[in-house]
Amino acid sequence: MIFKQFTINHDRCAMKIGTDGVLLGAWATIKHNPTSILDIGTGTGIIALQLAQRSDAELIDAVEIEDNAYEQAVENFENSPWGDRLFCYHTSLEEFANEIDETYDLIVSNPPFYSEDFLSNNKARNMARFTTSLPFDMLLKNASALLTENGVFTTIIPYKEEEGFIQSAENYNLFINKICRVKGTPTTEIKRSLLEFSFRKNTIETTELIIENQRHNYTEDYINLVKDFYLKM
């Protein structure tokens, strides 16, 4: 898939590039000028590449446990203009957190969120899609451990999980700062929540993003958010 400044191959990844990842990579704040970024469960590497395009961060690390996705992320990183700043670790999040000495100014994750009730016979797809491979509690615990004192953790999850996720985050001293609730069209239900956390309690900034006015007629807000990436925006 060709973007304005880089190309993503995803033929070997169980989960292809979707709207969620691109939204997260475009929405995650870089106003605090992060010098180090971590993408947990990078998949194709799309979010890490977006953040490489958007920021001057010297260190952009990614973690991916699934074999084929890891290999493809490495290729996508190497073929990008920012290959010298991007590095992917082939390991689980827990192993990574236990072994790495780095902490990060910005941590992002588009985690799997389907429950095990929907498990299929495809192991790689299950790993990419289901919370059994990266439970929310594990994500929050390790994001907290790997975040710098003034760092920001940003993620995208199903809207129905928002309240519980925010409550669980407080167990690890991560406090919600920004919420953006995403709807497909003006008349559809809220589908996703983009969430930003830090170690500081702040007034919560809440916004809403509608992707389309109608089929293939994108809203101005959505176009402004992703126009630096999609060729046709």
Concise structural overview:
The protein has a single domain (about 20-225), classed as Vaccinia Virus protein VP39 (Rossmann fold), CATH 3.40.50. The chain is built from 8 helices and 10 strands. It has helices at about 20-25, 45-55, 65-80, 95-100, 125-130, 135-145, 160-170, 220-225, and strands at about 35-40, 60-65, 85-90, 105-110, 145-160, 175-185, 190-200, 205-210, 210-215, 215-220.
Q: How many separate helices?
A: 8
Largest sheet: 8 strands, mixed
Helix content: 25-40%
C-alpha-based Rg, rounded: 17 Å
Strand content: 25-35%
CATH fold type? Rossmann fold
- In the CATH hierarchy, what is the superfamily? Vaccinia Virus protein VP39
How many domains comprise the coordinates?
Answer: 1
Q: What is the ordering of alpha helices and beta strands? A: HEHEHEHEHHEHEEEEEH
Find the count of extended strands (DSSP E, 2+ residues).
Answer: 10
> Which word captures the global form?
globular
CATH architecture: 3-Layer(aba) Sandwich
